[in-house]
Amino acid sequence: MNHTRGLLSSTQVLRQIFTASVRTPRVGILSFKLLQNAPQSRFFQQSRCLKLREYRPPVEKPPINEAIRASFVQVVNDEGDLDPPTRLEDVLESFDHAEFFLLQVQEGDHDNPPVCKIYNKKEVRAHEKAKAKSARETKVIFKQIELNWAIDAHDLSHRLKQLSTFLEKGRRVEILLTTKKRKRNPTVDEIKQVMQSVLDTIREAGGTQTKAMEGEPGKQLRITAQKIN
């Protein structure tokens, strides 16, 4: 009969019930596993991009005074020779700690005690200051000044003052003389005046050219100068 064609047989109904009962938990388990594994997979992907910082062990300074871990030490005397092994306590009691300190300059071993030397605090500070000053003096700071051949008198005066200041501070200065786009071309007299003003300023500041000029006057010219020590 036509009205029975849309009905399912008992076998089909049972098949759908049992199929649904079996598939439903599988889908749930699968979705749970996907949710569980998704952040974990992202974690591993992100962990691959992580960069471990390189471990740098702290720099250990030589021990001084009571920080020296030894019962006996050998002290370097004024002649540069080693005194016989002496108790550390006796050595520490032999000088004024306000003015001197005992520094371990060489580690000891099973047969020999550590080697130490008594230093004057003021002399050490003076030596460190002189060393820092020498490092600052040897480190020359490079400066550059750019000038236009057709520069006006006010701007030229300002740039020349900068040049003089840099040279007096001992800095190496590179003066770049050039033309600028959309600016008028300089006259021959302007070129001579600007170039002579730069050279006069270098000489008056006690400077000298450290290498030959590079370029062509009126176009692009490079002058490098530094103060004479």
UniProtKB/TrEMBL annotation:
GO terms for molecular function: ribosome binding; translation initiation factor activity. The keyword Protein biosynthesis applies. Pfam families: IF3_N. Residues 64-135 form the Translation initiation factor 3 N-terminal domain. Keywords: Initiation factor, Protein biosynthesis. One of its GO terms (biological process) is mitochondrial translational initiation. It comes from the Eukaryota. InterPro entries: T_IF-3_C_sf, T_IF-3_N_sf, Translation_initiation_fac_3, Translation_initiation_fac_3_N. One of its GO terms (cellular component) is mitochondrion. The keyword Protein biosynthesis applies. Belongs to the IF-3 family. This is Translation initiation factor 3 N-terminal domain-containing protein. The lineage of its organism: Eukaryota, Fungi, Dikarya, Ascomycota, Pezizomycotina.
